[in-house]
C-alpha cells in the first residue's frame, strides 16, 4: 500500500507528463500551473505546492515563471526533467500492464 502523499506525487508526475511542456509561443499552459495541477489531480493548491517542492528537490520536476492565458501575471508552471520523464514513462507502462493491456 502506498501513502497518500506518494499517490499524489504519482498523479502529479503523470499529469505534468501530459501537460507540462510550454506552448510553441512560449506561454505556459494553465494545466501546468499549481492551480491547474491541483484541479486535475483533485487536491488543494497547498498540497500540490508541497508535493511539487519535493519533486523539484529530487530533480523530477522543474519550474519556470511564464505568462499563462487567463492569468494576469506570470505564474510558476511545471514540467518534467529528463529523470521525471523516464519515471512517468515507467509509471504509465506499469499501469498499462497492470490493467491487463500488455
Task: Describe it.
The structure is a single chain. It is built from 4 helices and 2 strands; from the N terminus they run αααββα. By secondary structure, the chain is mainly alpha-helical. It has a single domain, classed as Arc Repressor Mutant, subunit A. Helix 1 (4-19) crosses helix 3 and helix 2 packs across helix 3. The model has no long low-confidence stretch (mean pLDDT 88).
For the structure shown, list the relevant keywords.
single chain, 102 residues, mainly alpha, Arc Repressor Mutant, subunit A, two-stranded antiparallel ribbon, 12% strand
Q: How do the strands and helices of this protein lay out in sequence?
A:
Blueprint (H helix, E strand, L loop, with lengths): L3 H16 L14 H8 L3 H13 L3 E6 L8 E6 L1 H17 L4
CATH class: Mainly Alpha
Main β-sheet description: 2 strands, antiparallel
Instruction: Kindly report the spatial arrangement of strands forming the biggest sheet.
Output: 1-2
Structural domains: how many? 1
Task: Give me the CATH superfamily.
Answer: Winged helix-like DNA-binding domain superfamily/Winged helix DNA-binding domain
How far is the N terminus from the C terminus?
A: 23 Å
Q: H/E series, N to C? A: HHHEEH
Assign an overall shape.
Answer: globular
Q: Tell me the number of strands.
A: 2
- Total helices: the number is 4
CATH topology: Arc Repressor Mutant, subunit A
Give the uncertain stretches in residue-range form.
none
Backbone structural class:
mainly alpha
Whole-number mean pLDDT = 88
The whole-angstrom Rg is 14 Å
